[in-house]
Write a structure and sequence with these properties.
The chain is of the alpha/beta class. Helices cover about 35% and strands about 25% of the residues. Helix 3 links the parallel strand 4 and strand 5. The radius of gyration is 14 Å and the shape is globular. It starts with 12 loop residues before the first strand and ends with a helix. The model has no long low-confidence stretch (mean pLDDT about 95).
Length: about 150
């Protein structure tokens, strides 16, 4: 399934780094930055996570939450989050079901893709860049700020 801007973001249930069950629909009324990344504590994924961490206050001021998704297990997410003091949610997708729902499965390595979802659960931006992990947060901020200035 190929998702596009304007589509309703598929709801999913996942287990967080804290072992809690969450659903995407739990965050209605907020912007959601749902980012898929290949693997905890690898160079590009570390850069991407720290970029989201470093801009997290800006995102919160814009009524946005960040959810990172990879195929790593809960324990790996917990260690990754603690090591880099990540203030946002990491969701374990060991079976690849969330990736499949969003159409972001790769051949050799899972793609690095960020979805920006509006307060009503619609996809308003899709950004894919495997080689420029730090650009994902600036793309998300640009989109949300653009909406804020129109509203």
């Amino acid at each position: 399934m190929k998702l596009k801007i304007g589509d309703q973001a598929p709801d999913f249930e996942g287990i967080t780094d804290e072992g809690r069950k969450i659903r995407l629909s739990d965050f209605r009324g907020k912007f959601v930055i749902l980012y898929f990344y290949p693997k905890d504590d690898t160079p590009g994924c570390r850069v991407e996570a720290m970029s989201f961490r470093d801009r997290y206050d800006d995102l919160q001021k814009l009524n946005a939450v960040v959810i990172g998704v990879s195929g790593d297990n809960v324990d790996s997410h917990k260690k990754f989050k603690e090591k880099y003091k990540l203030p946002f949610i990491l969701v374990s997708d060991t079976e690849g079901k969330i990736r499949e729902l969003y159409g972001v499965k790769g051949l050799l390595i899972p793609p690095r893709v960020t979805f920006v979802i509006d307060i009503d659960g619609r996809i308003i931006h899709i950004y894919s860049s495997q080689l420029n992990p730090s650009s994902h947060v600036s793309e998300a901020l640009k989109v949300i700020r653009g909406l804020e200035s129109k509203g």
